[in-house]
């Protein structure tokens, strides 16, 4: 492995671990993030000269800790800060408690109920997933500047409120879990369909980390249906990863994928979790319904065997508990297969005001207009989808479909 590959791998695999280690030790998310970034910058300079260290993660953590202490020494109230820094340098690590995973502890810190729900998700995507502010802004469909301010306010709130860096007590877990699940789902989605320019279209490092943390969360809350539902959803989505991008670099639609290339073991595990939740008799939540929809898709040996009536019925349940425009858009896509593109088009057009900046909305319109024979309008919708899409594989697929219009 050359130095460039080693640096890229370290960024993917070690960023969250280094940030989490510094957050626990210094109790300051700004210090943790900035010192980690400085350590990676030093690696870019040093590794080509000195060689890649035998343990890149340990090297980065040690370097980041030194950078953090240097920063603290430069701040005001220098004498007190220096004593504190020396104490941190020499102290034994605090016990991790029931969950010996610093990254999951960081998620719980960022998902404290004192923070607004959207701030919890955005902050954790930044610190845990290593996503840029621009990538997070795209995930939330907001401007980059607004997202940067949101993240800064969340960090300030954690510092001012002295929110501890730990997994909460068992009695507090239910109050935090919804925010944690939202974070893990968005981390997974960024890996499933990466939006950053110049990144791989599918980032397995993020999907794998989201699955790993969700498995840990399930050990904490084995009876929580939504945790099980999210894990099932991730597993069945991850099962299709190798079939989702063609050899030429295009995103392959679900109906065109080679289903023989899907990971049967992951699908089996996901289906088992869905069946367990159905057998519980409890009313399903959002993630359980999304997992059930995914189970219908992955149960069909061919796209023509898909039970679209069941998919639409599940979306009907989902709309009742999550009446978001994105859910309505996905329901319309299923309706197109059941009732035809004209019925679906009417539903999609009602979403224009809410989703005008969302590339998938325009891609859906483009496909429906193509099926209705309205090629000129379809081409314009494809152009808009291509303009908004950030994923290189998706742009390639949309471009080909647009260029195939009569």
From TrEMBL:
Transmembrane segments: none annotated. Signal peptide: none annotated. The keyword Nucleotide-binding does not apply. Residues 17-77 form the RNA polymerase sigma-70 region domain. The keyword Transcription applies. Coiled coil: none annotated. InterPro entries: DUF6596, RNA_pol_sigma-70_dom, RNA_pol_sigma70_r2, RNA_pol_sigma70_r4_t2, RNA_pol_sigma_r2, RNA_pol_sigma_r3/r4-like, TPR-like_helical_dom_sf, WH-like_DNA-bd_sf. One of its GO terms (biological process) is DNA-templated transcription initiation. Belongs to the sigma-70 factor family. ECF subfamily. This is RNA polymerase sigma factor. It comes from Streptacidiphilus pinicola. The lineage of its organism: Bacteria, Bacillati, Actinomycetota, Actinomycetes, Kitasatosporales.
């Amino acid at each position: 492995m050359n130095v460039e590959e080693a640096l890229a791998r370290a960024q993917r695999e070690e960023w969250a671990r280094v940030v989490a280690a510094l957050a626990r030790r210094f109790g300051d998310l700004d210090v943790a993030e900035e010192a980690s970034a400085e350590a990676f910058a030093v690696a870019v300079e040093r590794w080509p000269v000195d060689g890649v260290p035998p343990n890149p993660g340990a090297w980065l953590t040690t370097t980041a800790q030194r950078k953090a202490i240097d920063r603290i020494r430069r701040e005001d109230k220098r004498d007190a800060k220096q004593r504190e820094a020396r104490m941190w340098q020499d102290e034994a690590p605090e016990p991790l408690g029931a969950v010996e995973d610093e990254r999951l502890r960081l998620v719980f810190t960022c998902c404290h109920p004192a923070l607004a729900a959207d701030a919890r998700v955005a902050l954790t995507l930044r610190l845990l997933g290593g996503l840029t502010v621009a990538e997070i802004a795209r995930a939330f469909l907001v401007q980059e500047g607004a997202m940067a301010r949101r993240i800064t306010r969340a960090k300030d709130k954690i510092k001012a409120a002295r929110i501890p860096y730990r997994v909460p007590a068992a009695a507090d877990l239910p109050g935090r879990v919804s925010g944690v699940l939202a974070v893990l789902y968005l981390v997974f989605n960024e890996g499933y369909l990466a939006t950053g320019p110049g990144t791989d279209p599918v980032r397995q490092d993020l999907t794998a980390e989201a699955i790993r943390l969700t498995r840990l969360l399930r050990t904490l809350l084995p009876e929580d249906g939504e945790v099980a539902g999210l894990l099932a959803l991730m597993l069945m989505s991850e099962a299709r990863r190798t079939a989702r991008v063609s050899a030429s670099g295009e995103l392959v639609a679900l109906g065109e994928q080679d289903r023989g290339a899907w990971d049967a073991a992951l699908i089996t595990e996901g289906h088992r979790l869905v069946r367990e939740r159905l057998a519980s008799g409890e009313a399903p939540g959002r993630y359980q319904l999304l997992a059930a929809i995914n189970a219908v898709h992955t149960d069909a040996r061919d796209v023509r065997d898909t039970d679209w009536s069941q998919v639409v019925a599940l979306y009907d349940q989902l709309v009742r508990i999550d009446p978001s425009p994105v859910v309505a858009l996905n329901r319309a896509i299923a309706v197109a297969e059941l009732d035809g593109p004209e019925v679906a088009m009417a539903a999609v057009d009602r979403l224009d005001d809410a989703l005008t900046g969302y590339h998938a909305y325009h891609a859906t319109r483009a496909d429906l207009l193509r099926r209705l024979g309205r090629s000129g309008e379809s081409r314009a919708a494809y152009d808009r989808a291509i303009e908004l899409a950030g994923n290189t594989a998706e742009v390639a697929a949309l471009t080909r479909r647009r260029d195939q219009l009569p």
